[in-house]
Amino acid sequence: MGLFDLFKRKPEVIEDLDLSWLEIDMHSHLIPGIDDGSKSMEESLELIQRLSSYGLKKIITTPHIMSEYYRNTPEIIRMGLEDLRKAVKKEGISIEIDAAAEYYMDEIFLDKVKNGGELLTFGDNHILVETGFINRPQMLLETFFQLEMAGFKPVFAHPERYQYLLADKKLQEDLIERNTILQINLLSLTGFYSKQVKDFAEVLLEKGNVQFFGTDCHNPRYLDMLETLPKSRNYNRIREKIWKNSSL
């Protein structure tokens, strides 16, 4: 061995990603061509094969429903799910596929809740909802209330990414006091979005109310980064706890 060989940095070995402890991913965008997720059936099958290889048993994919951008309906999502299931079966991928939706909070969504419109849910009448990342919606707490009055269990998608929530300690306390169910993106713990998002995700984990994790997978780049999760200091800690994903 030469002198300079002593100073060569050994390549970093990253543990293989294992999501068998999670069992079920309840947040992703894998029905091709209907939102900002997978663009083709080939891409969807590639992503699903990779998710299956991590030890997941089931995927509940959740296309966006946003009145201004993605005007999906339960019928559109169900047709896309049927095509996706057929393709997964033909490809011989051993994983269960289901679908719900990720609803954007706005006046149109709130009216649909109040008027009893059909909404796609998962598990025990859980419904995944999101907001814009910068500004707090005026109807945020009212929407949660109306959903609960209608018999739904709202799940707040990736709250660690909302700048308005990070800056509003009172709102954080309000959500915790009213036992709002939170879902964190596993990618947030890798620093994929930003260090600020990563740090806030860790704060929310400490405060409680986080009951679900999701990949929020949109494309192969998401899974490339997700495979670095074992480097996170939180990886072993979150694997030690039972999350509600496994009950879906």
UniProtKB/TrEMBL annotation:
Full protein name: protein-tyrosine-phosphatase
Enzyme class, spelled out: hydrolase
Transmembrane segments: none
Listed InterPro entries: Caps_polysacc_synth_CpsB/CapC, Pol/histidinol_Pase-like
Organism: Algoriphagus zhangzhouensis
Keywords: Hydrolase
Catalyzed reactions: O-phospho-L-tyrosyl-[protein] + H2O = L-tyrosyl-[protein] + phosphate
Catalytic activity, EC: 3.1.3.48
A Pfam family reported for this protein in Swiss-Prot or TrEMBL: CpsB_CapC
Family of this protein: Belongs to the metallo-dependent hydrolases superfamily. CpsB/CapC family.
GO molecular function: manganese ion binding; protein tyrosine phosphatase activity
Record flagged with keyword Hydrolase: yes
Domain of life according to the entry: Bacteria
